[in-house]
Write a structure and sequence with these properties.
The protein is α/β, with parallel strands linked by helices. The chain has 3 domains: 93 residues, no CATH class; 293 residues, Rossmann fold (3-Layer(aba) Sandwich); 179 residues. The strands form 4 sheets. A 7-stranded mixed sheet has the order 5-13-10-9-6-7-8. Strands 1-4-2-3 form a 4-stranded antiparallel sheet, with no helix packed on it. Helix 11 packs antiparallel against helix 12. The longest helix is centred in the C-terminal third of the chain and has 34 residues. The radius of gyration is 39 Å and the shape is extended.
């Protein structure tokens, strides 16, 4: 039986010989000392010598004194469990005993999640290409969903700093948060929040602020939160009863605040009464303004309740539940500073951003007519400024217009990153229109996390000017939203001998406009910009450049090929050819550059950059878009067909038909009135989300 000296509680009586092995540990060697104790028995009736009598009396006194000391020491070890005392250097003692009956310590296995609850699939793939279209439950998956362990993982944290109580903090004494926890159900996110609250309660008293979006699109989610709160607070009570968290007076206080155009404190002051919290959330009214001033609400919360930190020493946790990115981006910097100075952590349960875009859509069913309408909402972007060019794809296939970014909106993600919280991406209302196209693994996206250190555009531009490649990417993304390419031109032309040249010219004009837009965007990239790629260390900037520049070059090649192909048709065909062998033209993609031969090197560069994206960023939105661009080659070929004109109809002889007798009836005295038409349903009043 081996134990440290501070836990040694074993006592043994011996009537024969005993050996005590004492081991002393050191860095270089281990020396074992053997002490043999011999108990001498005096024969009955024998008188011990005088010195033995004196020794026996002294020995008895020392034995009694030793046993009293041993009992007091043992009782002190048992009773003073919570009293800290000095621990000497580690010393291990081994005692050899014949029988050993250790007491088994009862282990309490407490699970935070209700076992009666249904298991939720915690990772879903988001492809916003299908948003606004009819939803199909049997859409094909590009990759099978990955099973996920539902056990609560250990909290990922960087090196923590001790936060002094009752003081205003420096902006630098903050642990960086986690901006991408993966796509999970809202119930799973609330369970993880419960775990976070329990962890904080082990350290100090806590104030939890439930900051809820009051818009109509989140009414169902607020009901889910209210239902789940009963389980959350019962779990926290159970943890306290099992002494897994300290039992303190009013250890947990909670407040409920809603926001829309204005901020409303549903609970005037934080309370420890769960019934008041539940009733406050249930009584929340929808905000019809369509505004979501999230960061303004956070500043109001910190102004009113920061004293719970500075005066009472409580940990402040602000839990934001929303389905949009917010309408008051300029206020997010002030909200972050106020949270950091008071040591408040922000946790967000919200949507994923749309990759490279600001707007997404919510499917809304109007009660007036039962029809579904797609209402725009703000969901992005995931970066401080747009960094991806906005280009349509050519030929048949998905446009991936509303592809998931894998990260939350920039301002909300920066809020949790700078305050030490966590962003939980959930598939709430705004996610219903997204269709699965593969798995965006959280770990695969980790190297492509945006840079959240910029709070204003001015600071961002100062940073970009130091990096020519990044500045060019941002400028190209800006120009692509001003100079819009028209995408795929007409690929099927039916012509006649009279109009075939005019038809080809009209097709050229369409692609010429796209060609002009693409070339104007390419002007954002200075000459020899490819050389800057070798200097770029950020994986996100490397892939964004390769994808944007590669797609622009690919579409430039396609425009030139189509334009030159139309010119070839006008110059090589005659009216006789149109009447006999070629009056139907079908444009198809080709691996060979057939017409604009000067674009061969450009096509090779585009293909190289797009393949680099697929190789270096597999399983990411960049790879999805690069693969879609490479789905069709950049060259063009024309399939010429001839459809014989239909024969002219022969003229028919006019045969006069005999007149048929008509039956004349007496007019009715009463005319029947036509049935009134049913009234039109009222025009639905679409809410502002």
């Amino acid at each position: 039986m081996s134990s440290s000296l501070s836990d040694f509680e074993h006592e043994q009586s011996c009537t024969g010989g005993a050996e005590l092995f004492e081991k002393s540990e050191s860095e270089n060697a281990s020396v074992e000392h053997v002490i043999e104790l011999e108990l001498v028995q005096i024969a009955e009736g024998t008188t011990p010598p005088a010195h033995r009598k004196l020794g026996w009396t002294g020995g008895l006194f020392l034995s009694v004194l030793f046993h009293v000391w041993l009992c007091v020491t043992s009782a002190g070890i048992i009773l003073s469990h919570d009293i800290p005392f000095y621990h000497p250097p580690k010393l291990e003692t081994t005692v050899r005993i014949e029988e050993e009956n250790p007491l088994e310590q009862e282990v309490i296995d407490y699970e935070l999640v209700d076992p009666n609850d249904k298991d939720f699939e915690v990772r879903q793939v988001i492809n916003a290409a299908s948003i606004g279209q009819s939803f199909s439950e049997k859409m094909p998956l590009e990759s099978a969903p990955v099973p996920v362990d539902f056990s609560l993982p250990p909290e990922p944290r960087h090196q923590a700093y001790d936060i002094p109580e009752g003081k205003v903090l420096s902006d630098q004494i903050v642990v960086k948060g986690l901006s991408n926890y993966g796509v999970i159900q809202i119930e799973s996110a609330l369970d993880r929040v419960t775990w976070e609250i329990a962890q904080k309660l082990q350290e100090r008293k806590v104030l939890v602020v439930w900051l809820l979006d009051a818009s109509g699109s989140l009414s169902a989610q607020r009901a889910a939160v209210a239902k789940r709160l009963e389980q959350i607070y019962s779990e926290l009570d159970a943890l306290e009863n099992e002494e897994q968290i300290p039992r303190l007076q009013q250890a947990l206080l909670s407040g409920v605040v809603t926001y829309g155009e204005k901020t409303h404190f549903i609970t005037k002051e934080p309370t420890g009464d769960f019934e008041k919290i539940r009733d406050a959330i249930a009584s929340t009214k929808n905000d019809p303004s369509g505004k979501e001033n999230i960061f303004t609400a956070i500043t109001h919360v910190m102004k009113r309740w920061k004293r719970y930190r500075t005066s009472h020493g409580r940990e402040i946790m602000i839990i934001v539940v929303t389905d949009e990115s917010g309408d008051d981006f300029p206020m997010h910097e002030k909200a972050i500073k106020m949270c950091r100075r008071s040591g408040a952590r922000a946790y967000v349960i919200g949507p994923t951003a749309v990759f490279g875009r600001k707007k997404g859509f919510v499917s809304y069913v109007a009660p007036e007519d039962g029809k579904s309408y797609n209402l725009p909402v703000d969901l992005g972007p995931e970066t401080a400024m747009f960094d991806l060019v906005d280009l349509p794809f050519w030929f048949n296939g998905p446009q991936h217009t509303y592809l998931s970014a894998g990260f939350g909106p920039y301002a909300l993600s920066r809020l949790v990153k700078e305050t030490g919280g966590i962003y939980f991406t959930t598939n709430m209302t705004t996610m219903k229109g997204f269709g699965p196209t593969g798995t965006f693994n959280t770990e695969a996206l980790r190297p492509f996390e945006p840079n959240y250190q910029f709070g204003t555009e001015k600071k961002y531009f100062q940073h970009l000017k130091k990096h020519p490649l990044r500045y060019a990417v941002i400028n190209a993304a800006r120009l692509s939203r001003i100079n819009k390419s028209e995408g795929t031109p007409k690929l099927d032309l039916r012509v006649t001998a009279r109009n075939f040249r005019q038809s080809a010219t009209t097709a050229q004009k369409t692609v010429a406009r796209s060609q002009l837009m693409v070339e104007s965007i390419l002007q954002a990239f200075p000459p020899q910009i490819e050389k800057e790629l070798a200097k770029e260390q950020s994986p996100r900037w490397r892939m964004t450049f390769c994808l944007s520049y590669g797609r622009l070059l690919a579409q430039k090649v396609r425009c030139y090929e189509y334009n030159y192909a139309c010119a070839w048709l006008k110059g090589s065909l005659t009216e006789q050819d149109i009447n006999t062998k070629s009056n139907h033209w079908i444009f198809k993609p080709s691996k060979k550059i057939n017409y604009a031969t000067t674009m061969k090197r450009t096509a090779e560069t585009a293909e190289k950059l797009l393949n680099l994206v697929i190789e270096e960023a597999p399983g990411t939105p960049w790879a999805v878009l690069a693969a879609r661009e490479l789905q069709h080659p950049f060259g063009m070929q024309i399939e010429q067909q001839f459809i014989p004109p239909p024969p002219k109809p022969k003229p028919r002889k006019a045969n006069p038909q005999p007149k048929k007798p008509r039956l004349l009836l007496a007019p009715s005295s009463q005319k029947k009135k036509p049935k009134p038409k049913p009234p039109k349903p009222p025009k639905p009043q679409l809410p502002n989300l």
